[in-house]
Amino acid sequence: MLEKLMQWLSIAEGGFVGARDRTARQIEREKNLLDWTRSEARVLKATKQYGADRASFALALARRAYQDPQFEWAFEPAPRSYWRGSGASISAKVGYVLAVFCLWLIVVWPVSALLAGLIRVGAWLIDPLRPAVQCAIDTIYWVLCASIRGAIALIVLGFLWWLFLIALPALYAPWRHWLDDVYRELERPTQTQSSSRTYLLCWIFGVPLVLALLACALVFIIWPGTILSKAFTLKVLVVTGVLAIVALICVAVDRSDRAAKGSNADPHNDDVPRAQQVHPSIDFCEALLAEESVAHMVSLTDIRNPNGWSAWWIRLSLGIVTLFGRVFFTAGRLGDAPGIHFGHWHIIEDGRRYLFCSNYDGNFGGYLDDFINGATAGTSLAWRWTTLMPRRPAIFGDPEVKEPRSFPPTRFAIFRGVKCEMKFKSYARDSMLPHVYRFEASKATLDQIDLATALRDALFGERNDKNDDLIMRAIES
Fold first, then answer.
1. Which of 430, 437, 472 is nearest to 455 (CA)?
2. Could you tell me the CA-to-CA distances from 179 to 173, 198, 261, 336 in Å, in that order?
3. 3-class secondary structure, 87
4. Nearest CA-CA partner of 331 in 90, 21, 76
5. Are 350 and 115 in contact (CB under 8 A)?
6. What is the pTM of this model?
7. pLDDT tens, residue by residue, 435-460
8. Count of CA atoms in the C-beta half-sphere (13 A) of 18
9. How far apart are CA 283 and CA 363, in angstroms?
């Protein structure tokens, strides 16, 4: 059986873990500590010895915990990775991204020097090879300098992104309100006149501007001498104008095609049955977990044609999601979506299908609502290159896909998409598979896990108002 299972082993293309840096044994121990503390608190309250004195009450609980030998393991602070601890500042997290690029420079510098030295020795030994040797040395140093210029370009582009999308909205309210309006119009699930106008203006001005910035960065990396020339500036303006005109024509043609079809209904929700039918096998699996605090989802979709191209974009998207989940979203929230224990994505069957598995708190409807109202960009980015093709049930009684269905249309890869609520939920439901076997080491929610860990640090840490308040909130929650 092990050999058979190992044949189907697939390394995840991307993943996210909510309750990080904890073992199953640690979670169980901290849960027992939380239950014990609440029980002891009820005993102390019955004595009416401490009244409303919060500090004395918390100190009495801490003393009892210290004196109980079963909690000797809790004398040490709960383990935390650097990224989940208090030491990881924003600058450190941004520095992590830059460090990945700087590693390339660290590798290129000594390798370039070594190769250049070897080539010069070879040229000294064999004189006729000097022209080719000099060309090779120039190429090596160009790679080194281009890498340094690439780092500079990356920093400049990151600074511009931070300036216009983070700093300026925080300091200048009109700019923030304007950006909020643009985001709102781009994410409208239905096509309105205002959303179409915003979409059109983004194609005319936004996309050519971004492409022009990327083109300037690329030219600066490869041909730095031409970046300040008048000819290059003129070419950038001409190309930007041509792209804007092409974008305008494409959008106009798309609008005319839709008008010619005479479809005035909402194209994103019109084909969704309002009474969504869930397969009995999925209902049965969810019924088994109805009284549990943790639910799960197993989804299997097809990758759009051409498979190789779509799979490449999916891997790139999941790399971004995994990076942000590892460095920035380290407290059980993926974007604005809370309560996710883990999620992992696999490209299987030689790039033909896309498997997604997740554990989360609450019910399925609330889970999807978290993504609709929160992490819309990441969800659309991870699923937009997928579709549902007709497929037979794996075994009798399993769900099948009778009618093909596409993921809701997106705008600029990250907007709209999951905002088409009815179509997104129907797509997710139709892609689900029942579980055959399920193991759960802990049945606690992420909030309970985090609360138990915080209580451990508060009981066995220094006495202060913050820890006393946390102890009181833990026993009263």
1. 472
2. 10, 11, 33, 18
3. coil
4. 21
5. no
6. 0.76
7. 888 787 778 888 888 899 989 998 88
8. 24
9. 12
Token digits of residue 337: 């979506």
Q: Write down how long the chain is.
A: 477
Cα–Cα distance, 417 to 415 (Å, whole number): 6
> In the predicted model, is pLDDT for residue 266 greater than 70?
no
Is the pLDDT assigned to residue 256 strictly greater than 70?
Answer: no
Per-residue confidence (pLDDT) for residue 267, from 0 to 100: 46
CA distance 16 to 246: 39
Least confident range of 310-314, 326-330, 404-408: 326-330
DSSP H helical ranges for 126-206: 130-162, 168-171, 173-186, 193-201
pLDDT at residue 355, as a whole number: 92
**Domain boundaries 280-430, CATH class:** alpha beta
- Residue-wise pLDDT for 157-191, tens only, equals 888 888 888 889 988 898 899 889 888 888 888 87
- pLDDT the model gives residue 264: 46
Distance (Å, rounded) from C-alpha 67 to C-alpha 231? 79
Instruction: Give residue for tokens 């079963």.
Output: 70
Cβ neighbour number for residue 18 with a 10 Å cutoff: 23
Structure token digits, residue 419: 């905002």
> E strand or H helix at 341, and its extent?
strand 340-348
Side chain identity, residue 381: L
78: helix, strand or coil: coil
